[in-house]
Amino acid sequence: MGKLAKKILKVSLGIIVILYISFLILEDYWYRQIIPENIGLDYHISIGATFGLREGCAVAVYRLGDVTYFEIQKKG
User: For 28-61, b where at least 16 C-beta lie within 10 A, e where not — what string?
Assistant: First the structure.
């Protein structure tokens, strides 16, 4: 494999990684917009989705922020 081919491969892999990370960030942002702001979220634990030809299902699981967690503990 020549130097040019290796360089093209590295650049291509770099672009793929950047696109994938961008997708993950956008996906997290999209799910956070659905949840009301007064429910404080910390970080996502898991985000997953499956899609078929006519239907799909998605789930996002987040860790509650400390303030929200303590308010639930205090008030029930």
Answer: beebeeeeeeeeebeeeeeeeeeeeeeeeeeebe
- Number of structural domains found in the chain: 1
- Distances 51 to 31, 33, 57, 59, 62 between C-alpha atoms, Å: 17, 21, 6, 12, 21
CA-closest candidate to residue 41, choices 69, 71, 72: 69
Please give the helix or strand (H or E) that residue 56 lies within, else none.
strand 56-64
Domain that holds residue 61: 3-75
pLDDT for 24-58, tens place per residue?
Answer: 999 999 999 988 888 888 888 999 888 888 898 98
